[in-house]
Amino acid sequence: MKHIIKLVFGSLITIFFSASAFAVTVSWTDWTSSPDSFSASGNIGSISVGYVGTGAHSFVTTGAGTNFWTGTAYTNGSVSNAPPASDIIALDQGGTVTITFSSPVANPYIGLVSWNSNTVDFGVPIVIDSFGPGFWGNGTPILNGSGTGFFGSGEVHGVVQLPGIFTSITFTHTSENWHGFTVGAPIPEPETYAMLLAGLGLLGFVARRRKKNA
Predict the structure, then answer these.
(1) What is the pTM of this model?
(2) Residue 204's CB: how many other CB atoms inside 10 A?
(3) What residues does each domain of the chain span?
(4) Which segments within 8-67 are labelled E, that is strand?
(5) Residue 16 backbone dihedrals phi, psi, to 5 degrees
(6) Most buried residue, 14, 111, 133, 145, by most Cβ within 10 Å?
């Protein structure tokens, strides 16, 4: 019986952390304000999102503006929807960027625009979900030896994912005029919820049967 419980619990954990495989839709940050050249804030649904950088950014778009999220770079991986046109943080001076969430976010995505000849490190393993043609052309993100960052060969446009659960994300980057980003959280499809509920139901059944036998 213990073996069955461990097996079911392990399956639930696997489903949870692989939810991005089913998540074709991402809820991208709605950036709403930027009080200075080093910070901005917004939200992903009910989750508050903050950004702080040690180097000044070039601009932050929180309303109508140029749509830099064009091309197939954002949708040739597991994501079906590119970030919205009106939301982007354009970094300029290199340094350290910290993104914070008011609630834990599982398997967040980072959208990238024009990370040309930029060296980036997140300090934790990342997955390059997609890249390709974008607003400023095309490029290839070259993963570093530790798998925690990349070097931008050419005009990199695309999406990287950080597997795990995060209340904050920190990465370093080098100066380049300019390179944009935003952050989003995957929305599991109904099949994922159904699998999770089925697993939880099975755990409940096993627990009840174990109690009855006892």
Answers:
(1) 0.80
(2) 10
(3) 1-22+188-214, 24-187
(4) 25-28, 30-36, 39-44, 47-53, 57-61
(5) -60, -50
(6) 111
Q: For residue 155, give both structure tokens.
A: 């005009």
Burial of 205 (0-12, 13-18, 19+ CB in 10 A): exposed
DSSP 137: B
Tell me which residue of 121, 120, 24 sits closest to 75, measured CA to CA.
Answer: 24
Q: Give me Rg for the CA atoms of the chain.
A: 19
Under 8 Å between Cβ of 158 and 130: yes
Q: Closest by alpha carbon to 156, among 186, 119, 121?
A: 119
Question: Which residues, listed in sequence order, are joined to residue 159 by a DSSP beta bridge?
Answer: 111, 130
- Cα 40 to chain center, whole Å? 17
Question: For each of the chain's 214 residues, which pLDDT tens digit applies?
Answer: 555 445 544 554 544 444 445 546 999 999 999 999 999 999 999 999 999 999 999 999 998 899 999 999 999 999 999 999 999 999 999 999 999 999 999 999 999 999 999 999 999 999 999 999 999 999 999 999 999 999 999 999 999 999 999 999 999 999 998 999 999 999 875 444 445 455 555 556 555 666 566 5
